[in-house]
Amino acid sequence: MAPFPDEVDVFTGPHWRMKQLVGLYSEKLSETNFSNISDFRSFLKSLLATFKEFKMHEQIENEYIISLLEERCCTVYNMHSDNKLSDMLLLLEKGLHNVKSEYEQLNYAQQLKERLEAFTQDFLPHMKEEEEVFQPMLMQHFTYEELKAIKKQVMAQHCTQQPWNCAADVLKGFRLWSHAEELQKAFKYADHEKTDYAKNNNFVGKQKSTILGYLGPQDLCRCSQVCSSWSELAKTGSLWKHLYPVRWARGDYYNSPPGDSDQEPDDGWLKSREKEVRAYQEWDEDADIDESDECGDSLAISTAQREKRLLNGIIQNLLPVVGPHVKSLVLAYGSTVSSKMVRQILSLCPNVTYLDLTQTDVTDFAFDSWSYVGACTSLEHLDLSGCDKITDHALKRLSLALGDLNALWPSRRRRQRRQRAVILKQGAGGWRPAWVPADIEDSAEWTRRGREEVEKRLVETQLVGSLCCCSRGRRTGPDAAILHYAVSTDRFCAHAACCNGDSGEALWTNSRRSPVDTKCPVNRTNKSGARRVLNFLSLSGCYQVTDVGLRAMSELGGLPALEHLNLSGCLSVTEAGLHQLVSACPALNDEHFYYCDNINGPYADTASGCQNLQCGFRACCRSGE
Question: Per the database record, which ranges form the F-box domain (predicted)?
Answer without folding.
Answer: 211-244
